[in-house]
Amino acid sequence: MSKWTGTRVPDGRVTPKPEADLRDALLALNSPDVPYNVGEGQQGEKADLVAECHIKRVGLRLNTSMRLVPEKHEVRVIHERWENRSAGNANRQYGRGHAPAVFTQKETVTGPDGRKQRVVAFRFDTLEMTNPLEDTVLRAGWTWRGVFRL
């Protein structure tokens, strides 16, 4: 795996599946139980598929654009992230590239012993979106290649 781009290659013993099978497998990741949606890229985008995730509770939006390159059996990927650091969009931060992160919200509660304590009320790891996408691509015998341009 390339730590700079997040590129991963499949096990050499896996025979690459056809592009249509990979596309169907990625679209099949959609379910009410996951915090993201995989869909077709919009006209004018260079992406064939796009996975989007909006976690309003922590002001986070993730976008993973995927371009299928069948002649090389690879999926070229660009990760983008928008974070609201405070109320409104004044401190909206943009990030691009492979950068796993965990977002948490804590709250103070009274424990059984009557003492106040800080507990994690909400947790989201960006790998909850990225790992299923990567794993699906690798199981199909294709390379997951992080790039800076599709």
How is this structure best described in words?
- The protein is built from 2 helices and 8 strands, in the order αβββββββαβ.
- It has 150 residues and is mainly beta.
- A hairpin with a 7-residue loop joins strand 4 and strand 5 (92-96).
Write the layout of secondary structure elements.
Layout lengths: L18 H9 L8 E5 L8 E7 L4 E10 L4 E11 L7 E5 L5 E9 L5 E10 L1 H13 L3 E4 L4
Parallel strand pairs: 4-8
Antiparallel strand pairs: 1-2, 2-3, 3-4, 4-5, 6-7
Question: What is the structure about, briefly put?
Answer:
This protein is mostly beta strands and 150 residues long. It is 15% helix and 41% strand.
Uncertain residue segments: none
Number of strands: 8
Structural class: mainly beta
| Proportion of residues in helical segments | 10-25%
Number of helices: 2
Termini separation comes to 19 Å
pLDDT averaged over residues = 90
Q: State which percent range the strand residues make up.
A: 35-45%
If you compute it from the alpha carbons, what radius of gyration comes out, rounded to the nearest whole angstrom? 18 Å
Q: So what's the overall shape?
A: elongated
Instruction: Please describe the biggest sheet, giving its number of strands, its sense, and whether it closes into a barrel.
Output: 6 strands, mixed
Helix and strand run: HEEEEEEEHE
Characteristics:
two-stranded antiparallel sheet; six-stranded mixed sheet; elongated
